[in-house]
């Protein structure tokens, strides 16, 4: 029987560097499927519909939610976000590993529904550095930055139930840690069911 893919679920307070780390991971492991979420927030500069997100109106989002279109959904920083269920199920069923970039509320929902999921929380080195990065990114207005910082403490307290914590201080070190968590998951005995028998037979 073909094994299911690994669901690698990444959460972080906004500005911690999750997008930066995900870009690196997808560049090194292009076989990853990416779970493209739906959102009701406005696209930022450089974001593409269908690649970064499906950008939906609130009405469209709510009608999909009512049809159980989402594996999980949550309201984050005043907008709705949700993971379309079918594409993810298809990729995992075909043995493809899938990366999820979702908030702590959504991750908690996925923990109840996805087998073989690995949950990684990316921490900034400090709250002061988180604020510096949010401002330095230059993507959000002042009110949005304030809202994101207010949410960050609450989100970070949820990090305790994740499988792994990665502190994104030095980017290279953080990436090495994230990569190690992923590679360890690929080596789990459950994912290599015939390895032991085949070795003994040689
Ligand atoms: P997120 O996706 O978690 O909101 P981003 O990846 O957009 O965060 O990163 C937020 C900002 O911090 C960006 O300007 C990014 O270049 C910067 N950044 C990311 N990682 C580091 C790091 N290790 N050291 C310094 N700056 C970083
Ligand atoms: P941003 O607006 O900065 O892209 O994302 C804001 C937050 O929403 C991030 O914490 C991101 O992980 C989260 N997010 C993105 N997509 C989803 C999703 O499909 N479901 C949930 N629950 N959160 C999401």
From TrEMBL:
The keyword ATP-binding applies. It holds the Pfam family Guanylate_kin. Keywords: ATP-binding, Cytoplasm, Kinase, Nucleotide-binding, Transferase. It catalyses: GMP + ATP = GDP + ADP. InterPro entries: GK/Ca_channel_bsu, Guanylate_kin-like_dom, Guanylate_kinase, Guanylate_kinase_CS, P-loop_NTPase. Its EC number is 2.7.4.8. PROSITE patterns: GUANYLATE_KINASE_1, GUANYLATE_KINASE_2. Gene3D superfamilies: Guanylate Kinase phosphate binding domain (3.30.63.10), P-loop containing nucleotide triphosphate hydrolases (3.40.50.300). GO terms for molecular function: ATP binding; GMP kinase activity. GO terms for cellular component: cytosol. The keyword Glycoprotein does not apply. It is found in: Cytoplasm. ATP binds at residues 12-19. CDD domains: GMPK. Residues 5-183 form the Guanylate kinase-like domain. Belongs to the guanylate kinase family. HAMAP family: Guanylate_kinase. Essential for recycling GMP and indirectly, cGMP. This is Guanylate kinase. The gene is gmk.
